[in-house]
Amino acid sequence: MAAKPRFRNDAQDAGADTEDRSTKHPVDETLPPLKMFTSGLQHVAAMYAGVVAPPLIVGAAVGLSGTELTFLTGASLFTAGLATFLQTLGVWNIGARLPFVNGVTFAGVAPMLAIVDTTDDKADALPIIFGAIIVAGVLGFIAAPYFSKLVRFFPPVVTGTVITLIGVSLLPVAFGWAQGPNPTADDYGSTTYLTLAAVTLAVVLVLRRFTRGFLKQVAVLVGLVIGTLIAIPFGVTDFSPVTEASVVGFPNPFHFGAPQFALAAIISMCVVMLVSMTESTADMLALGEIVERPADERTIAAGLRADTLGSAISPLFNGFMCSAFAQNIGLVAMTKIRSRFVVACGGGFLVLMGLSPVAASLISVVPRPVLGGAGVVLFGSVAASGIQTLVKAGLEKDNNVLIVAVSLAVGIIPITEPEFYHAFPETAKIILDSGISTGCVAAVLLNLVFNHLGRRRDDDEVTAPMEPGEEISETRTAKAAHVH
């Protein structure tokens, strides 16, 4: 029988003049220019709303003018592009070199608003936030190789649970988008908005079902374009951002003032960094499964270095803490386009949009309900990937069923009961309000209790966690008896 071709990464291929395409992993392949362009644009479209929302929320709380808000949003796009370059292309031991899009993490919004509320002079709020993020990023960068050692506590029963939670946690975002741009407006959740979301979803599904090749792979992008065009007669599409935006605008370093370092703010953002690193670890494990390049300890350490370094650099250009965007994992899972260079191309678009407000405003034209319709497919694909991983975890085993059941329940609490932890301190709520983080911690601890601590020899075949594709055998059962 002929041997299967061995995949190699680009680092192993450095200096080679020729390369047999069949031996290169799909993650390291480059695509034709048109496909690279459109696929990269899809990634930007999928995560655009998530990138611009935090600066808009924080900027409004600080009391920035419309011009300053546009500047802050452009800065977030620019720094998201830089962080994406770090993650996909990599430098030295920095970057997972997986198709990851990085951008502003939502985990930091609540603590940043708390910092704004407790700052007497609002002009100092952003410099204090930026100073805290710089310190948290540097400390996170130092801690990355130690944090990555936790990967051995993430067998399929844990990773599958966390991946499923990522998808389930993101779905409410899509449902919120589908109801309209303003939750306080009278027309929020109107039939017009919901119909636009449903039509966009239907377009994506039809393209995925009845087309082939390239058109099938860019179904989400085409769905967004068609949905936006359909929304024009309903008066939902707003072109004013394009007409009002300037052509060129560079995010000048320290535009809002030199960073300030306040201990309380630093502690708060360090907690956010830990939450972000936990979620990024789960995201890397999820994406590794999807692209068939499992994320090992070294990959996770490199990926966390990119996250934390990107976060430390971001405030220099007036950006916020950066983290991997889970919604783009769903896009990779759905399109099957695994090239990290496609995502790097998306990072290039982000940088250009950060340098050109007009370019940034083009994607902002897409109505929120249209994004919601496409989001159902994207985020649902993440949850489906988690279920596929759980199938490999051996759910016929009672212990694994209990791990999944309780961990999912804990992770879903913030989604179904947002005020469940209202009596806890604000610092604790930063962690508890993240269902991905709490579910991940619960799954790891329960796996240790049920599958490792005090395991009896006659329980090994039933409870020992399995790796993807691994089958129970007498050899493995004998080996498992020595793992304690």
TrEMBL record:
<feature type="transmembrane region" description="Helical">
    <location>
        <begin position="214"/>
        <end position="236"/>
    </location>
</feature>
<feature type="transmembrane region" description="Helical">
    <location>
        <begin position="428"/>
        <end position="450"/>
    </location>
</feature>
<feature type="region of interest" description="Disordered">
    <location>
        <begin position="1"/>
        <end position="31"/>
    </location>
</feature>
<dbReference type="InterPro" id="IPR006042">
    <property type="entry name" value="Xan_ur_permease"/>
</dbReference>
<feature type="transmembrane region" description="Helical">
    <location>
        <begin position="256"/>
        <end position="275"/>
    </location>
</feature>
<keyword id="KW-1003">Cell membrane</keyword>
<feature type="transmembrane region" description="Helical">
    <location>
        <begin position="154"/>
        <end position="178"/>
    </location>
</feature>
<feature type="region of interest" description="Disordered">
    <location>
        <begin position="459"/>
        <end position="484"/>
    </location>
</feature>
<keyword id="KW-0812">Transmembrane</keyword>
<feature type="transmembrane region" description="Helical">
    <location>
        <begin position="44"/>
        <end position="63"/>
    </location>
</feature>
<feature type="compositionally biased region" description="Basic and acidic residues">
    <location>
        <begin position="18"/>
        <end position="28"/>
    </location>
</feature>
<feature type="transmembrane region" description="Helical">
    <location>
        <begin position="190"/>
        <end position="207"/>
    </location>
</feature>
<feature type="transmembrane region" description="Helical">
    <location>
        <begin position="98"/>
        <end position="116"/>
    </location>
</feature>
<keyword id="KW-0813">Transport</keyword>
<feature type="transmembrane region" description="Helical">
    <location>
        <begin position="128"/>
        <end position="147"/>
    </location>
</feature>
<keyword id="KW-0472">Membrane</keyword>
<comment type="similarity">
    <text>Belongs to the nucleobase:cation symporter-2 (NCS2) (TC 2.A.40) family.</text>
</comment>
<protein>
    <submittedName>
        <fullName>Nucleobase:cation symporter-2 family protein</fullName>
    </submittedName>
</protein>
<dbReference type="Pfam" id="PF00860">
    <property type="entry name" value="Xan_ur_permease"/>
</dbReference>
<dbReference type="InterPro" id="IPR017588">
    <property type="entry name" value="UacT-like"/>
</dbReference>
<feature type="transmembrane region" description="Helical">
    <location>
        <begin position="399"/>
        <end position="416"/>
    </location>
</feature>
<feature type="transmembrane region" description="Helical">
    <location>
        <begin position="341"/>
        <end position="363"/>
    </location>
</feature>
<dbReference type="InterPro" id="IPR006043">
    <property type="entry name" value="NCS2"/>
</dbReference>
<feature type="transmembrane region" description="Helical">
    <location>
        <begin position="369"/>
        <end position="387"/>
    </location>
</feature>
<keyword id="KW-1133">Transmembrane helix</keyword>
<feature type="transmembrane region" description="Helical">
    <location>
        <begin position="69"/>
        <end position="86"/>
    </location>
</feature>
